[in-house]
Design goal:
3 helices, single chain, 3-stranded antiparallel beta sheet, alpha+beta, about 25% strand
């Protein structure tokens, strides 16, 4: 009688391992690879675009895998990055933003915002203001990050998946199986 009970309990444990624990280990491994991909994409794109890694990581999102949907997705928010968030420095007669010198640029606030931005005089001719004064047109300087993210993202994610997924899955399975021994 005792042997039959042990066989039944071991059979239940094996069924649970096959049905639940392997899927949970897969989900955990996929989520870890997606998080590592996010960091790698941000660091590679930051080197190319000369934008701070922390600012790029805020624009990369991971839709995590779950038990009902066991695949993760890495996607990007592709709005241009403000010049102050890129690597910048003040030089004579302008600002150096993301490695390029912007002549006739200056730091200022927009009238209805408290945050500073870097602007550049356009040079396309004067514009009359409400007070009748003539002023040159200005534009806010931004740095495009979307091209780099869209080019680097899929390749890095696929490389990380091929390189790290099996190692992470193996470690997750061994950690989960220790609970049954």
């Amino acid at each position: 009688m005792q042997l039959d009970d042990q066989i039944k309990s071991l059979s239940k444990k094996l069924d649970k391992i096959a049905k639940v624990e392997t899927i949970k280990a897969h989900i955990s491994a996929v989520n870890k690879v997606a998080a590592q991909s996010k960091t790698a994409i941000a660091s590679i794109s930051a080197a190319e675009t000369k934008i701070k890694v922390s600012k790029l990581k805020k624009r990369i999102f991971v839709k995590r895998a779950s038990f009902s949907k066991p695949s993760a997705r890495v996607y990007f928010y592709s709005r241009p990055v403000d010049a102050l968030d890129a690597s910048n420095s003040r030089v004579a007669k302008g600002w150096k933003v993301a490695g390029t010198f912007r002549q006739r640029s200056f730091l200022a606030r927009m009238p209805n915002q408290s945050r500073h931005h870097i602007f550049q005089r356009d040079g396309n001719g004067p514009v009359r203001t409400a007070g009748g004064k003539k002023r040159e047109r200005i534009k806010m300087i931004t740095v495009e990050a979307a091209d780099s993210l869209n080019r680097v993202g899929p390749a890095v994610t696929e490389l990380k998946m091929m390189k790290d997924y099996h190692r992470l899955l193996k470690s997750e399975l061994s950690a989960r199986l220790k609970g049954y021994v």
